[in-house]
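quick one, 120 residues, struct below
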Amino acid sequence: MNINWKKALGFGILVWIIMFVVISVLIAYEVIASNEMSTSLSVALTLLSLVLVYVAARYIVPQGMSEALQYGLAFAVVGVVLDFLISAKFAPDMFSSALYWIGYALIIFVPLLAVKKMPV
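---
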């Protein structure tokens, strides 16, 4: 099973943009400082990103576990690359956060929840 790369990249970019906007709004309204974030807020934002990935995967409807993992990996790679190219300019220490990497590791597996179930 091959993944649809337009969907993988498109939804990966869309999820990243939504998260970037949410975090930017929180910074703009001084809910968080641009250089530090509480653990509870980090967890909440990680959960939001996982929900967004799940919604994206539900639109894609992976046909099997392998395909779902490929989409998850594509979403994670897109996010890390965009974070490296854009977000790291605003928060250079983001890559040293364990929660950051745990979030992206979970993103790889979330599309498994959207695999099309076969009738028994």
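The first helix runs from residue 5 to 28.
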